[in-house]
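Our collaborator T.R. sent over the components below with a one-line note: 'Predict the complex.' Nothing else. No constraints on interfaces, no templates requested, no preferences about which chain binds where. So this is a plain run: every listed entity goes in together, and whatever single assembly comes back becomes the starting point for the next discussion.
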Amino acid sequence: MLHHSIFWLVALIFVCGQALLIHAAWRLRRAPAPPPPGVPQSPANTDFAWTLATAALTALLFYGVYLALP
Amino acid sequence: MFNSNIARIAPVGALFTLLVVVSGGLVSASGSGAACSGWPLCSEAFTATATPQIWLAGSHRVLVLLAMLFAAVAATLALLRPALGRTTRVLLMLAPIFGLLQLGIDGLMARLGFAIAADLSHLALALLMLGCQTLAALRLILPVANERLGGRALRETRRLTTLAWWTAGAVAVLTLALSSRAALVPSVSAATLLPANGSGALAMASLFATGTLWQTWRTRRNDRLLLAGASLIVLLLVSLAPLYLLPNAAGAMVGLAASLWVATLALAVVIQRRPLPAHPNAIVAPVAAERTPSLLIDYLSLTKPKVISLLLVTTASAMYITEAGMPSLWLVFWTMVGGYLAAGGAGAINCAFDSDIDINMGRTSRRPVPSGRISRRSALRFGLALSALSVVVLLAFTTPLAALCSTLGIGYYAWLYTRWLKRSTWQNIIVGGGAGAIPPLVGWTAVTGTLSVAPLLLFAIVFYWTPPHFWALALVKQKDYTRAGVPMLPVVAGEAETRWQMLVYSILMVALSLLLTPIGAMGWLYFAAAVGFGVIFLSYAWAVWRRGDHASIWGLYKYSLLYLALLFVAMVVDRLT
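Returned assembly:
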């Protein structure tokens, strides 16, 4: 019971945290600040895709953890 | 008036405490303690036939009484004189407290039946009391050197002071270790619990003392007093060696070692307080920065040994927490060798590819490739050779999966991160963090040959640890990254955005670190440690987000290094217990 509680608490934190990061990546994609001279412009769509991929892979890990719970 | 009184009383008090330790060593070695039946008085001194044992035990008790009296008087004077200086006052007030603790703990341990442990605590507390009195007396006698040191002089003085303090610490361990030889039954003495026995502690102390002498010769050779003091300490330590061979001298050696401890403490304080000689060439060592490192050092630095040390901690720890049990030492050794070669190879390739960036950054501009001491081609060949060797070592001595993970790590870091991500996207550190997260997988698979959820969680912990760690550095070195044209998050999105994302990643990392317990890979000991270390990490991340000043950012950067090491050590401790 305690193990499951910890898992769901961490999962909740994960969902909230990833939502904030995805929102930040979306915000930076919509309104990218001009980089200083000599610094390349970061590709907005790729940046957003990286953020989604990271979140998706970590979610997959959470699924693995869920299956491994006693 | 007050100051001069304390300045007279404190050294006398220290002298009496030293005599207490010396006589205590003799009492212990001769078994004279049993000659007195009571405490604190020794009635046998008046009633029984006078024997050397009774006189020795009685004298020891009289000396204890006098030492406590002087310590109490000095502490009272310190209490009445706030202008004395906080450290000096605290030292003087601590001395009688250690003395009283010594008496109290002795009584408690005797009552609880832990008499064996009391022999160590007895001497340790006496040494602490002696140390406090010695330091306080020296601070009262020697005025503070009123001078501002330049960068190099300050650095050299700090180095010398550090060595002197380490010498003092080693001599304290030596004194405690020698006390086991003075005990009537050395094998059951609590001193056997120390990390070094008498000869080991003597070797360690001699090593530090020689280092102090060498550094004194390099930087303060015009100061005859310091040089003589450092030389004397080395000579005394060397002279202890032949005495060590004489079993009958065990009691006297404790006293000698305690005297040596006073001398080493005195040297450390004198180094701090004596002004540098007025001679302009007082620091006679050649300027280190002007020296060209040897080719060997240059090639070694290409492997980034400082970075690798933390990676190897995570690799080794992962090896000890698998469900397969304790790995053999040979397996650990070869995995470490393979891991070093792989990480070093990837680091050398990174140095070759990044020389155009490194030359524009203060932190990296002195690396061998940007400074022209090693060509890019040579660095690349070296990196490739190390990488190939790592695959061979890991394949030959560990498992194919460990070799595969390691090879993927090399490619990830040297090509995906270095050649592409680092130069093109602010996600460079986030995605690139995967390269640094592979070592635990290598360690785990080297033992088990398979992957499971637990090692993937280790990967995720390091992966989410990377952004707050490297963004802290990027915030501090923001101008360097801008000049080098690297699109780090602080450069392209600003400090506020970076600080906020650092906090979010820190929360995710700490949360992920807790999942090892619910799946049964770790116990509650680890869970408690992960919560404790994580809370500290979050407090640093919070400070960075709220304040964002240099001190808080630098604090997070330094703690993050410690955090990762502590977390993995906690895993090993949990598994071993």
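Summary for T.R.: The first helix of chain A runs from residue 2 to 30.
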